[in-house]
Amino acid sequence: MAKVGIMSFAHMHAYSYAACLNELTEAALVAVWDDDAKRGRTAARQFGAAFVPNMDKFFASDIDAVIVTSENVRHREMVEKAAAAGKWILCEKPLSPETADCKAMIAACKKAKVGLGTAFPCRYSPPLMEVKRMVASGEFGIVYAAACTNNGQFPGGWFAKRDMAGGGATMDHTVHVADALRWITGKEFTKVYCENGNLIRTDIDTDDLGSLHMEMDGGIQVSHIASWSRAKSFPTWGDVTIEIVAEKGVIRVDAFNQKISVYNDDAMRTEWAYWGGNPDMGLVRDFAIACDERREPSVTGVDGLRAVEVTVAAYKSARTGRVATL
Fold this sequence. Notes:
By secondary structure, the chain is α/β, with parallel strands linked by helices. It has helices spanning 13-23, 37-47, 55-60, 75-84, 99-112, 126-137, 162-165, 169-172, 175-185, 279-293, 301-320, and strands spanning 2-7, 27-33, 50-51, 65-68, 88-92, 116-119, 143-153, 189-197, 209-216, 220-230, 241-246, 249-254, 259-264, 269-274, 324-325.
């Protein structure tokens, strides 16, 4: 059983990962470190783990692995320290806002001979896993194009600050789709054109909408909308949808549509009760098993780098008004 520590509850996904760890037989959440001591103590108490305020003591404890869920720009620092301490690492997406930092993180883990995974839970979404199977089987023939969305609620807090997040909705909600398409098609992105900006929130440092047009190996054409456009009252954080146009048919998938609509008069809003698979559980389980088996997690640091390369190209395109080549 892998003994896991979580580094920072700055990112909301940390709470889901912690809940998953407490349900798994393959892992246990035993320690929490957070530079915000109040937040860290509260989270540690909530999930039954020890709060360790000193990072050196956190790494010196008997944890085997860490999940890094800090602000985006702090990922590199924490990953490199965890690698030096010999811990297996799962890092929240984006791996880092900058490709140079991603490469440094991968190199540090390779040098330390520890596994580095990127948190792309969409690979563990049952509908997307079925799409992957259908495309890989060849039953739909050659893939020609894909139309995608990832529209979510505005996360608030440090996500609105460029010096902490590194980018806005274009980055936050493109990396998931870029990774999913790489995984489903087995192809790499070659070109990116992007227009982005602030259409909803003009008082934040980061963009809240990105419209991307991309190309993959073999000439696959991809359109993608990434946004923080969902209302606060929306039943969940957002969506991931993909429509694949192929030689022998069209595949349409909504990755988070395994749900029942619940009309809650007490809350005075519609809620979604999920009955399908939990992608976060699949992600965290694979990471725990990878730690025990001393192998790379299935979604690697290189996968994280490739997705970041797409978003870096998108921001370059948005600045210059030209197509960016990867």
